Amino acid sequence: MIKRELIASLANREEGPVTVAGWVEKVRDQRYVQFVVLRDESGAAVQLVNGGVVRELDPNSEDPKDADRHVRTTAISEVATGSFVIVSGELQKNERVKLGGIEVQIDKFEVVTAADPETPVAPDSGIDVRLDWRFLDLRRPEQALIFKIQTTFLQALRNVWVEKGFIEVQTPKLMASASESRAELFQLEYFDTTAYLAQSPQFFKQMAQAAGFGGIFEVGPAFRADPSFTSRHATEFTSVDCEFSWIESHEDVMQLHEELIVAGFTAVKEKHGAEIEKLFGQTLEVPTVPFPRIPLAEAKEIVKERGYEVPRNDADMDPEGERQIHAYVKEKYGHDFVFLTDYATSIRPFYHMRHADNASLTNSYDLIYRGVEISTGAQREHRIAVLEQQTVEKGLDPKEMSFYLDFFRHGVPPHGGFGMGLARVLMLMLEQSSIRETTYLFRGPTRLQP
What SS3 class is residue 16? Predict the structure, then answer.
């Protein structure tokens, strides 16, 4: 390992010898002195000061007499933005320096890899250009922070699950049959048969309940052959999934769901709150519990009273309706989250349990955050006779679903769970315009690279 110190740690360090490494962000060449702004993966930057030359590694040099081997000399002003360098020098406190009141007087400056002088991405480049050069875009501190936040958020969720005795699983993404219908499925050749990319791990999550695992969770990819170009859709995305047994209703699922959200937001605020305020200009709020709960039918009436009517042929809540119900909840409860409950059987999958006293409604919910749906959860139907009947009612062939239905022929406890889009949560948390910003490498109808 190269011995160096992260730039973010220098503010708490005493003056003296130091070695840092990172990317050249800016070079300012004056008559007798050169200034370099260097940034590393910690997200922080430091000013380097030098009045001499720079040593650049040359991979083509084979001169055994060269004590430093693979080295040539060049003026510091010639170093291109984006070049990766290793610098040794003297750390000094200087209140006049805007970058944290410290600077490094250079003794040795080695260019490990020189960047092309012309940078293909500018600060004002559009999202498509930035995605074409995603590795350069991710060097920006705010972009790197997104994925540090993602790491903290997921770790907090895992902590809750593990403390409750949940088991982490990794389910297959190649399926022999469609999960619910053949809509929005990627189909591919698989030796002498056909396979499908999984839309969700739903069936495999429920298999774990039949296996007696109790509570399980998974963070993994999911695929939707949806030719959508909206700010919240992708053809490949990361799904946060959870399923657990011995529930009484979907209320149990909602309670765990909000507990996980609060844990994740609390961890992010504690670890990254100051950086979020600095780089994104907002103060992250940890939501209070319980989250408001509103039956879908009632939510539609509330939205109608606000001057917007969800189209009559749409049994679901449309995007504008979601925005309107969020505005209502924000005004009345001061909350950014709301559970919309009791969705119609007609728009829910066959495996959602129906109301005991009203078969037209399901024990299910959508979680809306800042006017956007981020998750769907439900109590599942675990009674084989009822499940077979609902399969037929949805127009599915029980023979094609036999591998799934077999789970329930051998005893399955009452259970439920949810699936949540990770990039959507981060997009809304940080008030970004698109999940393209909060997805490491975005995949959409027209993007397969990089």
Answer: strand
Whole-number Å distance between alpha carbons of 361 and 296:
10
- DSSP notation for 151-220: HHHHHHHHHHHHHTT-EE----SEESS-SS-STT--EEEETTEEEEE-S-SHHHHHHHHHTT--EEEEEE
Region 263-272: mean pLDDT is: 98
Same domain as 341, residue 296: yes
CATH number of the domain within which 224 lies: 3.30.930.10
Residue range(s) defining the domain that contains residue 387? 135-429
Confidence tier at 70 by pLDDT (50, 70, 90): very low
pLDDT band at 228 (very low <50, low <70, confident <90, very high): confident
Residue 71 has pLDDT above 90, yes or no: no
Residue 120 counted as domain residue: no
Q: How confident is the model at residue 32 (pLDDT cuts 50, 70, 90)?
A: confident
256: Cβ contacts below 8 Å, ≥ 6 apart: 242, 244
Q: Which of 383, 376, 377, 338 lies closest to 356 in space, CA to CA?
A: 383
Burial per residue of 412-425, b for 16 or more beta-carbon CB atoms within 10 angstroms, e otherwise: bebbbbbbbbbbbb
